[in-house]
């Protein structure tokens, strides 16, 4: 049942070390005490973020993240009927469909990058000739990401640059990126409208943002199962790591999040030309794909 819910507060290395020299630190703009509290929360869970993610989702979070990366770079001109059928089948199975993706040489952004899972996947797509910017407001999460980067040997991983910053005040130029991903971040942003407008601003025309997160379901059974799993599986497991309070926050953040339809409206009002939200993994997860 844990695999059905797929809790994704991704746990990693106890020793973080220093950020690499190429990392650019940015001042963090904090919009409220709530933002400060969330920043403290993610700094605290950073040392165990990836391990708990693997444990509580039975590894399925990696499938959903591959899907998010795939959807960040769908062909800008057309998608064949056969391709659409494949996507539909894989959605129903809660699996990942990898045929369309960020492309070699692209410059891409991973917002709320955490310990770097999506950024590493993106770097494999854009290659050593591309560029990946991983931005997060948690210095501890970025330290974990930097430590993981040092342990990976492929040349493409050297194209990643980690930045401490605010998703609602991005330190980038207009139309700078070919694709943007965001995994389990928008739900935790205080000003979602501003964050969405910032994503639209820095994205190139015709390019896509792919936002993966828990789905706030309109179905009462799905919503009940989410709450039950958090109360009876997630929080008890987190208690073993002395993080019960931090993971109790998860249920309230989902309940305070937006439905798929509301996310589509948010994207449209932020300036995206079109947006579609897809429910995956039995409706427990969702992925918003928006085109600038």
Task: Provide a brief overview of the structure.
Its main location: plastid. The protein has 292 residues and is an alpha/beta fold.
Can you tell me about this structure?
Helices cover 43% and strands 17% of the residues. By secondary structure, it is of the alpha/beta class. It has a single domain, classed as Vaccinia Virus protein VP39 (Rossmann fold, 3-Layer(aba) Sandwich). Helix 8 links the parallel strand 5 (177-183) and strand 6. The longest helix is centred in the last third of the chain and has 20 residues, at 220-239. The protein is globular, with a radius of gyration of 18 Å. Mean pLDDT is 76; it is low at 1-33 and 74-100. This is 2-phytyl-1,4-beta-naphthoquinone methyltransferase, chloroplastic. One of its GO terms (biological process) is phylloquinone biosynthetic process.
Based on the model shown, name its key terms.
single chain; 292 residues; alpha/beta; Rossmann fold; 8-stranded mixed β-sheet; 11 helices; globular; disordered N terminus
């Amino acid at each position: 049942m844990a695999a059905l819910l797929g809790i994704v507060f991704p746990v990693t290395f106890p020793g973080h070390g220093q950020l690499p020299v190429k990392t650019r630190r940015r001042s963090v703009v904090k919009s409220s005490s709530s933002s400060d509290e969330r920043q403290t929360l993610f700094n605290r869970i950073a040392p165990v973020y990836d391990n708990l993610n693997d444990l509580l989702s039975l590894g399925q979070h990696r499938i959903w993240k591959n899907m998010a990366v795939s959807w960040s770079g769908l062909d800008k001109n057309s998608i064949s009927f056969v391709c659409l059928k494949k996507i539909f089948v894989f959605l129903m199975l809660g699996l990942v469909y990898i045929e369309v993706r960020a492309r070699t040489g692209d410059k891409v952004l991973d917002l709320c990058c955490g310990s770097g899972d999506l950024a590493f996947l993106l770097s494999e797509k854009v290659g050593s000739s591309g560029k990946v910017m991983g931005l997060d407001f948690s210095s501890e999460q970025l330290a974990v990401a930097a430590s993981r980067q040092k342990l990976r040997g492929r040349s493409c991983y050297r194209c990643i640059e980690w930045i401490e910053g605010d998703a609602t005040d991005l330190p980038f130029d207009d139309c700078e990126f070919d694709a943007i991903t965001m995994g389990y971040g928008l739900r935790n942003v205080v000003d979602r409208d501003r964050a969405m407008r910032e994503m639209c601003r820095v994205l190139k025309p015709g390019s896509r943002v792919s936002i993966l997160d828990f789905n706030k379901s309109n179905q009462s059974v799905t919503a009940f199962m989410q709450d039950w799993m958090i109360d009876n599986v997630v929080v008890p497991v987190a208690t073993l790591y002395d993080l019960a309070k931090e993971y109790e926050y998860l249920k309230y953040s989902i309940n305070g999040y937006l439905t798929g339809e509301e996310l589509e409206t948010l994207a449209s009002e932020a300036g995206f030309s079109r947006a579609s939200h897809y429910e995956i993994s039995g409706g427990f997860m969702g992925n918003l794909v928006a085109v600038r």
